[in-house]
Amino acid sequence: MSLHIESCGAGAPLLLIPGWGMHSGIWGNVVAQLAQHFRVHCVDLPGYGTSSIIVQYDLDGLVQRLSEHWHTEYDDEPLALCGWSLGGQIALRWAHHAPHQIDKLVLVATTPSFVQRSDWECAMAVNTLHEFSVALLENHELTLKRFMALQVRGSEHERELLADLRACLSSRGEPNIVALRGGLEILRNTDLRAILPQIRQAALVISGERDVLTSPAASGYLAQQLPNAQLLNIKGASHAPFLSHPDIFVQRIEAFLNG
After folding, report:
1. Nearest-angstrom CA–CA distance, 156 and 123
2. Over the chain (259 residues), what is each successive 10-residue block's mean pLDDT?
3. Which residues, 6 or more positions from 48, have their beta carbon under 8 angstroms from its beta carbon?
4. Is the pTM value of this prediction over 0.70?
5. So what's the pLDDT on residue 155?
6. Which of 48, 151, 238, 255 has the fewest CB atoms within 10 Å, i.e. is most exposed?
């Protein structure tokens, strides 16, 4: 099974993991900026871009595929992970599953539980995510566009960001429907709160002040529960702060990873 990764720059390795519905092109101009400081690897998750689908499409299956690839290609060289949204949940699970592979974590718009639970209110209602799943079967293209609109809602330069997102989505073909459905199931089922105190790597938690998908409260909880974490809340940003506020995003990551 092929896993497509594009690499650029020189220095310590940094892997960028995108969120649900998007391929690695989502990172835009921050790749070139980060590549001035690090060897940046941009991965298309299975079922996106030119990466083939996997049979076990759940959180552990994705982590196993990434971990095995890194072990095979780079002999477990210590790696920094930057995961966005679902990609942040993958990063957390990977750091817990194979701590010897992971050096530091950057968790962007990440939550330990994407949906509300009896003791977890700062999240999306389960019914709302279920409606997305149903709509995905009826018209996956329209559903993706709706989700992209939520990602930038309330952000500075919202209209321009949405246009950029839509152009990015269509630049590498449509994602595999199995990957889309599997990703939504991961978002519905995943609750990582219990393992957070066991994740010892240094972490930078980045949230958007206006994020309507993963609330700043969830990011605050994440930063509190991880033993070695710091929190950055970017004013004026929503769910994709690397697009709306790329300069401060890169500056803080560079300082954190090189600190």
Report:
1. 22
2. 91 96 91 97 94 94 96 89 98 97 97 95 88 79 77 78 74 84 93 98 97 93 98 94 94 96
3. 18, 22, 23, 24, 172, 175, 176, 179
4. yes
5. 75
6. 255
**Catalytic site residue from 37, 41, 239, 245:** 239
Return the structure tokens found at 129. 């995510």
CATH of the domain at 151: 3.40.50.1820
The active-site residue out of 85, 113, 207, 219 is 85
Count of positions (residues) in the chain: 259
The two three-digit tokens of residue 155, written as one number: 């952000």
For the stretch 205-259, pLDDT in tens is 999 999 988 999 999 999 999 999 999 999 999 999 998 999 999 999 999 999 8
Q: Is 4 a catalytic residue?
A: no
Distance CA 21, CA 144 (A): 7
Which amino acid belongs to residue 14? L
* Residue in 44, 103, 164, 211 annotated catalytic: 211
Write out the residue range of the structural domain in which residue 140 sits: 5-258
Instruction: Please indicate whether residue 157 is annotated as part of the active site.
Output: no
Q: In angstroms, what CA-CA distances link 11 with 34, 37, 105, 203? A: 10, 6, 17, 19
Is 23 noted as a catalytic residue in this protein? no
Residue 13 CB partners (closer than 8 Å, separation 6+)? 38, 39, 41, 74, 77, 78, 79, 80
- Report the phi/psi class of residue 106: left, alpha or beta, with left for phi > 0 and alpha for psi in -120 to 50: beta
